UniProtKB/TrEMBL annotation:
Gene3D superfamilies: 2-enoyl-CoA Hydratase, Chain A, domain 1 (3.90.226.10), Lyase 2-enoyl-coa Hydratase, Chain A, domain 2 (1.10.12.10)
Keyword vocabulary terms for this entry: Lyase
The name this protein goes by in its record: Enoyl-CoA hydratase
Record flagged with keyword Lyase: yes
Family as reported in the entry's similarity comment: Belongs to the enoyl-CoA hydratase/isomerase family.
Origin organism lineage: Bacteria, Pseudomonadati, Bacteroidota, Cytophagia, Cytophagales
Protein species of origin: Pontibacter saemangeumensis
CDD domains: crotonase-like
Length: 257
């Protein structure tokens, strides 16, 4: 891995992926995205990992797709490379993924953060879809996820002017979970990941799927999906363990089965 660092055991049951192209503000070139896809796929399969945190550094989560790499491309080059397949695989990670964002989260960087299930930001974080300033538009979900998160008016303004949103505003408008001082953003994300990792991994996976389904379906279909996943929880040992532990007034020991 040249452009990311992976710690599969940053905390108990919590893996950490750090984007690592600091000089380029973690611009997401094709290799970085492939490495990220492969790492997520592997961590998704590792039994001891229950939640995953993706972070950058204090200055940048990621300042977008690598403009220098894209600059000379034609539509057919883009089609042939099919980066969407990589992004789709990242989106399909089954375990909960938390973005720990500080500094720039722009373009593809903002889209990557929004692809995660929760976002913890430092007070210096800046979110934006500035693609319009370089003659294009968001291409990895920005027009959809941003709009669903913060509403049409604010999303339209960001997408059409490229203006950035501060962490405080991002929290106010529901884009992120919370803002913390810069020295704490990673710690806070790892702490949140640890909390989730203490739950039943089976229930967490099914619940994540069901929440995400709310973005893709009408209420009736979403409720139907939720119900199926709810029933499925009752096929797990974790359901028996969780409920017995409550009755016996002890902490549950979930196994992900
Ligand atoms: N790409 C390449 N290099 C970048 C970069 C980027 N997105 N962002 C920054 N860098 C590089 C700079 O070129 C500079 O490199 P050197 O000149 O030192 O070699 C270095 O990082 C430091 O940046 P600055 O010197 O510019 O630092 P400043 O503090 O002055 O400014 C900045 C920071 C973040 C405001 C500025 O760097 C900036 O405006 N960056 C570009 C932000 C941007 O426009 N992002 C959107 C890119 S388009 C797709 C999926 C996704 C996408 C497309 C397709 N498919 C699935 C098909 C996404 C597209 C995008 O994200």
């Amino acid at each position: 891995m040249d452009f990311i660092q992976v710690d599969p055991q940053a905390r108990q049951h919590v893996a950490l992926i750090q984007l690592n192209r600091p000089k380029e503000l973690n611009a997401l070139n094709l290799q970085l995205m492939s490495e990220l896809r492969d790492a997520l796929r592997q961590l998704d399969e590792e039994e001891h990992v229950r939640t995953i945190v993706i972070t950058g550094n204090e200055r940048a989560f990621a300042a977008g797709a690598d403009i220098k790499q894209m600059a000379g491309k034609t539509a057919i080059d883009m089609l042939n490379v099919d980066q969407f397949a990589t992004w789709d695989q990242i989106r399909k990670t089954k375990k909960p993924v938390i973005a720990a964002v500080s500094g720039f989260a722009l373009g593809g960087g903002c889209e990557l953060a929004m692809t995660c299930d929760m976002i913890i930001a430092s007070e210096t974080a800046l979110f934006g879809q500035p693609e319009i300033k370089i003659g294009v538009m968001p291409g990895a979900g920005g027009t959809q996820r941003l709009t669903k998160a913060i509403g049409k008016a604010k999303a339209m303004e960001m997408v059409l002017t490229g203006k950035f949103m501060t962490a405080a505003d991002a929290e106010k408008h529901g884009l992120i979970n919370r803002v913390v001082p810069v020295e704490l953003f990673l710690e806070e994300a790892l702490e949140l990941a640890t909390q989730v990792a203490q739950m039943s991994p089976v229930a967490a996976r099914l619940a994540k799927e069901a929440v995400n389904r709310a973005f893709e379906t009408q209420l009736d279909e979403g409720l139907h999906f939720e119900r199926k996943n709810f029933y499925l929880c009752f096929a797990s040992e974790d359901q028996t363990e969780g409920m017995n532990a409550f009755v016996e007034k002890r902490k549950p020991a979930f196994k992900g089965r």
